[in-house]
Design a protein that fits this description.
Blueprint lengths: L2 H27 L1 H15 L3 H6 L3 H6 L2 H10 L8 E12 L2 E11 L5 E11 L2 E11 L4
Antiparallel strand pairs: 1-2, 2-3, 3-4
């Protein structure tokens, strides 16, 4: 085999390996924030609103009391309507000494309605806490 072809194949192999390692690292390092997000929705769909509220960050609780949180959930029943969700987009970063994660994807209620969702989480001590989330309609429905 010619040297140029061997070099090209070696480069291609290393590139594929690099992509695999990168994807493994991103999905592995974001597994815990995704798990916390999934648990948050499981608690909401089970009617355990207080437990889900306890999974929120200190800052979230300072700005949103339990009663206001419950009123929000009434306005968006998709969050408590036995939702299924996917979070294909994941990110972890650090800013001003705060470790945070954004996971986004789609939430679908039992009725079949879907919305885009972006979860924001922060690390408080060793635990990930929900610091907020954004919902948006899926425009192509």
């Amino acid at each position: 085999m010619k040297t140029g072809l061997k070099t090209c194949l070696a480069f291609l192999g290393l590139s594929v390996l690099g992509i695999f390692v990168f994807v493994f690292f991103v999905f592995g390092s974001t597994a815990k924030p995704v798990k916390v997000s999934e648990e948050f929705f499981t608690e909401l769909s089970s009617g355990e609103v207080s437990a889900a509220y306890e999974d929120t960050s200190v800052l979230f609780k300072e700005n949103t009391n339990l009663e206001l949180f419950e009123q929000f959930l009434v306005q968006f029943p998709i969050l408590t309507d036995t939702p299924t969700f996917t979070f294909p987009s994941r990110f972890i970063g650090t800013e001003n000494g705060v470790t945070y994660s954004d996971v986004s994807g789609t939430v679908t209620g039992a009725s079949g309605d879907s919305m885009q969702i972006e979860m924001h989480l922060v690390k408080e001590g060793k635990d990930w806490k929900v610091s907020g989330f954004n919902l948006a309609p899926i425009l192509d429905q």
